[in-house]
Amino acid sequence: MGWVAKSAGCRLVEGPVSVALSVYVKGRLDADNIAKSILDGLNGVVYEDDDQVIELLVRKHKVKRKEEERVEIEVRKVGQW
After folding, report:
1. Domain tally for the chain?
2. Count of C-beta atoms within a 10 Å radius of residue 22
3. pLDDT for res 6
4. pLDDT of 23-68, one tens digit each?
5. Which domain holds residue 46?
6. How far apart are the first and last CA of the chain?
7. Phi and psi dihedrals of 68, rounded to 5?
8. Is 34 helix (H, G, I), strand (E, B) or coil?
């Protein structure tokens, strides 16, 4: 996750952030487990530490094919929604 964010040109955000995750999966997946993995993977890449996350939204979407699986991530400073 961190490598993809770095290659997209992400910079460290200071202060509290809001995170929105849209997870597109074919099979079953626990929203809390995937959120924890993603937030941990963004430590030191998008924000210094995931304790900066004060708001979290996770949406799961079912897809029919494995090729359609993906995660879309939005991270914003609080107050920019």
Report:
1. 1
2. 14
3. 66
4. 999 999 899 999 999 999 999 999 999 999 999 999 999 999 999 9
5. 2-77
6. 23
7. -90, -5
8. helix
Token reading at 81: 């929604």
Output the CA–CA distances (angstroms, integers) from residue 34 to 13, 14, 80, in the order listed: 22, 23, 24
As a whole number of angstroms, the distance between CA 12 and CA 30 comes to 28
Contacts of 33-37 spanning 24+ positions with Cβ under 8 A: 34/58, 34/71, 37/1
Read off the tokens for 60.
């799961």
**This prediction's pTM:** 0.83
Predicted local confidence at residue 1, as pLDDT:
57
- Identity of the residue numbered 46: V
* Alpha helix stretches (DSSP H) within 8-57: 31-41
Give all strands (DSSP E) within the chain, no chain letters. Answer: 17-25, 53-62, 70-77
